[in-house]
Amino acid sequence: MTLRRDDLDDGITVLTIDRPAARNALSPEARDLLAEHCVAMAEDDTVRAVVLTGAGDHFCAGGDVKAMGSHDTAAVSERLAQMARVAEIVITFPKPLITAVRGHAAGAGASIACLADIVVADETAKFTLSFLNVGLVPDWGLTYTLPRRVGWAAARRLALTRERVDAAQAHRLGLVDMLSDERGVMEVALEQARRLGASALGGYAAIKAMTEDREALRAALRREAETQIERAATWEHAEGVAAFREKRRPDYVRRG
Fold it and tell me: For residue 75, how far is the Cα from the chain centroid?
């Protein structure tokens, strides 16, 4: 199973993306399990707060590029529709949700980190909006979440430049809310989960709902999906996927 759920005895649940050999690149199974668990945990009174992390040394390297490159428009559309559905479920999860980031959070991995209420990172964390590496655009609601964290100009710059941002810079930008201390990223994230989980959860959910713009979120998810469908059919995406598989730099200057 590529997404592991561990229920602790203090009302905290830990969800772990569990593909360490692939830097926790997100599989369709993990994506669907994330939605299933969030729906179930929202209704489970024994769950007070959730920590989402990655197994091993990395948070999530993004979408599985090895599975990309399909020319089946219907299949691509279905995948993106499901992705948008899961992103909305996670963003609107009514209980405290904390992401614990170590190592790489790239592409969709950075997007998923930003779905949380609180992002905790250690000194190894590196955030990269790497979508352009394969000729694609941000997804998983990043065009909604990131500008609200770092501002429009910084969000646009990070997407266009693919700049790798370390933990300290991410914290200064507002991409990361807390840096871990000597206890480690999971201990700090669990401390935050316990603190927030002791809140009046009905009120917590109400504040989240009041400060969300559901219409803007859904509009952003629609735009992301529509643009990604268009981009998935381009020669640039095909070149990016081929270059990844062949372990070379993509050539976007000279069309082959």
Answer: 22
Only one residue has tokens 């899961």, namely: 86
Whether the full predicted model's pTM is greater than 0.90, yes or no, is yes
Q: Which two tokens stand for residue 210?
A: 């009041």
Q: Which residues contact 215 (CB under 8 A, 6 or more apart)?
A: none
DSSP bridge pairs for 120: 100, 178
Region label for 187, one of left (φ > 0), alpha (ψ between -120 and 50) or beta (otherwise): alpha
> Given pLDDT bands bounded at 50, 70 and 90, which one contains residue 254?
confident
Q: How far is CA 218 from CA 37, 177, 191, 206, 236, in A?
A: 21, 25, 32, 19, 27
- pLDDT tens digit sequence for 3-29: 999 999 899 999 999 999 999 999 999
